[in-house]
Specification:
- By secondary structure, the chain is of the alpha+beta class.
- The protein has one domain.
- Helix content is 34%, strand content 10%.
- It is built from 3 helices and 3 strands; from the N terminus they run βαββαα.
- The chain has a 3-stranded antiparallel β-sheet.
- β2 and β3 form a beta hairpin.
- The protein is elongated and about 60 Å long.
Length: 108
Amino acid sequence: MAAASTRLISFKNEQVIPFSEVAQHFAFLNGGSGPHLVTVHRWASRGVRGRILESIRVGGRKCTSLEALQRFVDALSDPATAETPRQLTARRQAEISKANRELEALGV
C-alpha cells in the first residue's frame, strides 16, 4: 500500500491542471504521447514505490498541479528514496513472526 500524501495542492500557489492534461507535460515519454490517463489515475490512487501523486477533485474532475507532478517525479528520482521497502501483508508478517519464534525455540 502506498503512503498517503501529506502535502495539499494550493490554488493560489500552484498551476492546477486536469488529469487529462498531464500527458502533454510528459510528451517526451512513450514516443511523444506521455502516460495514459489510466496511469495518471493509478499514480494518484495506488502510487508508485510508496509515492502518491497529489490530487484534488474540482467540479467532478480529478486534477493535480504542475508542482505536484514535479514533487512526484522528484520523489521517484531521489536515489535515497527510490527503493522503498514493500509493505508486508498481515499473513506474511504472521509467517515471519512464527518462523522467528521457531528459531528462538531452537536456540538460533
